[in-house]
Amino acid sequence: MLTSVLDRFPADFEFGVATAAYQIEGGQTDGRGPSIWDSFAATGRNVVGKEDGRIACDHYNRWPQDLDLIRSGGFDAYRFSFAWPRLLPDGKGAINAKGLAFYDRLIDGMLERGIKPNATLYHWDLPSALQDKGGWMNRDIASWFSDYAQLVANHYGDRLAQVATINEPWCVAFLSHRLGIHAPGYRDLRAAARAMHHTMLAHGTAVQTLRSCGVGNLGLVMNFEPAEAGDQSPESQQAAQLWDGLYNRWYLGGVTQGRYPEDVCQALQAYLPENYQDDMAVVSEPLDWLGVNYYTRGRWYQDRQVSAPDLGDVVAAGGPLAKTQMGWEIFPQGLRDTLLRIHRDYSKLPIYVTENGMAWDDHVVDGAVHDDLRCAYFREHLSACLEAMAAGVPLKGYYAWSLLDNYEWAEGYSKRFGIVHVDYDSQVRSPKKSYLAWQAGLSARRG
Ligand code: IFM
C-alpha cells in the first residue's frame, strides 16, 4: 500500500519513526526530577482527564521491544528525545546516574539493531526547578540549556547520528506562553515574546556548544502550517499574514537569516527583550539541516469581539477538507508548498520531514487495526515530498509520527497517532495496518 510511493525515493533517502520522552517513557521513579508537564497535568482543566506521563507507554522498561518494532518495520533511524529532568533532575548541577545509564542502554540498543539515533535535546519537559527561575522567560536559559547540551555531547555525542536542539519552538514559546494550551500555561504577550527569543538564543548557544564538543549534523526542528485567511475580509487577510509571521516566519527567519520578520517585531515591540538584535548572530549559528514537522494548514480570521486585538486574537476558521481525530484538515499539498517555500525563500540546507502523521480513533479488532485513512495520509504526504524533491528541494529523510500511540499533551491519551496501537492497561503493542504497510514498502525498497 505504501510500496509504490516508497519505491520512488532515492536509495540513500532516510526513513524513520519519531517519539518524544515525556510522551512515551514513563519510568519517573529513577531519580528523574519533576518537569513542567507533571504539575501542569496535575492542575485541573489543563489536560483531558488530568492524565499525565507517569506511566505513558512504559518505554523506560519496554524499550527493547519498541526498538525491535523499529528494526522489524525496516526503518533506518529513530528520532527520540532526551528528558532533561531525567539527566539533570534540577535542570543543572547534579547528574542522575540512572538517567544517564538509561540513554546509554537505549542508544546502544539502537546501534546494535542498525538503527541510526536521531536525538532531540528538548521536547517540552522543562525541569520544574528551572521554571521556578522563569524558564523560557529568563535569558539565563541559554546557558542552562548549553550546559545540558554539553553533558549530552560529552556522554553520548560520538554515538548520535543527528542532533536537534529544540522541537517546535513555536509550541515552546507561543502555544505555552501566549495561548496557555501547553505547560507552563501562561497567557501573556510579554512572556511569549521573551520565550520566542530565548528559545532561539538557547538553540544557537547549544549549537555552538555541541559543535565545540565535536558533535556534528546539527539542526533545529520547526513546525509549519500554511496560514490562510478564513474569509475574504481585509481583517482576515491581515490575521493570516500575522499568524504566518508568528508561526512560520519567526523561527525560520531567525535561524536562517539572522532576522525576525518585521511585521511581528513591530507587533511585539513593547514586549521583546531589550537589545535582542545583538543576539541574532548566535540565533543564526550555521546548521547542517532543517527539520520540518507538518500536519495541516491553518485558516484564520480576526476576532471581532476583541476591541484591542493583540497577537493571538485570531480565531481558527475550520475548513472544508476531511479532518483527523485532532480536527486538523488533511492537506498534503501544504507539505509540498512548505518545503518549496523554505528552499526558495530561506535556505538551501538539506531538509528532513521530522514529523508527519495523523491521529485517529483506532481500535484493535481480532488483533488488527485497520487504519486505512492513516495509510492514505502517509501515501499522500510522501507523494507531496516527491513533488518537492522533483522541484529541487534537497529533502533527505522522512519520519512518521509516531511509532506508538502516546500522551498527546493537553489531549491526554485520547488521541492516537501511532503506527503501533498501545493498550494502556496491559501495555500490549499491536502493529496497525499502517505499520505493516511501512514494513512491506521498506522491505520491497531494499529488494
Ligand atoms: O505529539 C506532538 C509532538 O509532540 C510534537 N509535534 C506534534 C505532535 C502531534 O500533535
Shape: globular
Biggest sheet strand line-up: 1-2-3-4-5-7-10-11
Specify the biggest β-sheet.
8 strands, parallel, barrel
* Low-confidence runs of at least 5 consecutive residues: none
Q: How would you briefly describe this protein structure?
A:
The chain has 447 residues and is an alpha/beta fold. It has helices at 3-6, 21-24, 36-42, 59-73, 84-87, 97-112, 128-131, 141-156, 169-177, 189-212, 234-257, 262-268, 280-283, 332-346, 372-390, 433-446; strands at 14-18, 77-81, 116-122, 162-167, 218-224, 227-229, 289-294, 298-302, 314-316, 351-355, 395-401, 420-422, 429-431. It has a single domain, classed as TIM Barrel (Alpha-Beta Barrel).
Which SSEs are present, and which pair or pack?
Layout: H1 3-6, E1 14-18, H2 21-24, H3 36-42, H4 59-73, E2 77-81, H5 84-87, H6 97-112, E3 116-122, H7 128-131, H8 141-156, E4 162-167, H9 169-177, H10 189-212, E5 218-224, E6 227-229, H11 234-257, H12 262-268, H13 280-283, E7 289-294, E8 298-302, E9 314-316, H14 332-346, E10 351-355, H15 372-390, E11 395-401, E12 420-422, E13 429-431, H16 433-446
Parallel strand pairs: 1-2, 1-11, 2-3, 3-4, 4-5, 5-7, 6-8, 7-10, 10-11
Antiparallel strand pairs: 8-9, 12-13
Helix pairs in contact: 4-6, 8-10, 9-10, 14-15
